[in-house]
Amino acid sequence: MVTLLGISGSLRKGSLNTALLHAATQLPAEGYTIEAAGIQGIPLYDGDLEAAEGIPDAVTALKDKIQAADGVILFTPEYNNGIPGAFKNTIDWLSRPSSDIAKVFGGKPFALVGASPGNFGTLLSQNAWLPVLHTLGCRTFSEKRLMVSKAHTLFDAQGKLNDEATAKRLGDLLAAFAKFAEER
Predict the structure, then answer these.
(1) Is the pLDDT of residue 49 over 90?
(2) What CATH number was assigned to the domain covering residues 2-182?
(3) pLDDT tens for residues 141-158?
(4) Residue 114 pairs with which residues in a beta bridge?
(5) Residue 75 and residue 169: Cα distance in Å, rounded?
(6) For position 79, what pLDDT does the model report?
């Protein structure tokens, strides 16, 4: 059984990306499981804080989840045509100390998906993540992409995905990524 970890890169309670991640955990899954994680509780990266107090517990817990997973999916928002600062900050913490980069990221399959109220989904954010993931030594999944545009129209008031076409595209991506992660 392939284990996938989905990480929502939004801190917002009503996040479209968190809702998309929760939708992913509710889809039928053959041959894989998916666990949801978030970035709450991770402070702004500060080298002085790291030197004085070490790696925060929330960072260590997320590192452990990434290491235990066969593959990781970043559910990324797009802010001002780029990577959300809080999400990038999380990845920066996860790369500390630098001696951990290989064991957390090295060769680990990573996929990118995202939801946005805009017309282009999270195309620019996903593209901006690629050099970051490459630098960290990840195996990026490029067979399928999922950029959900006008996402605010696809979820009900409780955050449940109510668009069958998006659910199918999400399920297809998850199945293909699980196979990619299994080939590691």
Answers:
(1) yes
(2) 3.40.50.360
(3) 999 889 999 999 999 988
(4) 147
(5) 14
(6) 94
